[in-house]
User: Fold this.
Amino acid sequence: MSNKFTVLLAGVSLALAATAQATNVPSQWQEGKNYQLIKPALETHSGDKVEVVEVFSYACPHCAHFQPYAEKIKAELPDSATYVYKPAVFFKQWEPYARGFLAAKAMGVASEGHQALFDALHRDRKPIRTLEDLGHFYAQYGVDPGEFVSTAESFVIGNQLQQDVAWERKAGVMGTPTIIIDGKYRFSADTAGGNEEMVRLTEWLVNKELAARKKGAAN
Assistant:
């Protein structure tokens, strides 16, 4: 066998392998199994960007474990997509964390304290359970504890929380963390196959939505 034929054969084999791999990528994610289609699609609030929503709670240990993967998703998202957090309230004990997150967001310290609060609760086991506790926690970021509590208890925050919970209910969210892509697709670690797979499925569905938008704009 000549060297030229050997090189040609190797090139063909590599091309076939790449084609097979590319062909298998979409088929590994199945609607109804790995992710659910939300009908009708829900409204989003991120303008022209594809919206990736994580429904979470600081009280949820699974959310704490998922947080490094959430950071990976955020780091890899294209400029045409954005990552948004929505707090869940499945139990009465979760409400202070939900109100606290929205208050921290309104006061501009949610991002700064996000990982730190997960660490304080799930790594350091600190007794942070009430709005007053959360006010003292966020004081390290320059927030007045009393102002924090009054903000968290305000009508504006209460109304925002009601809207978020209603949105999550319409989306069919049953646990945390849950990812919702552009108000259309919902999945969790259980359906995706684990936290790492949630990263890959998020990327795939974001690209799927961007491709659909591009196709729609071209027609």
Observations:
- The radius of gyration is 21 Å.
- DSSP finds nine helices and five strands in the chain.
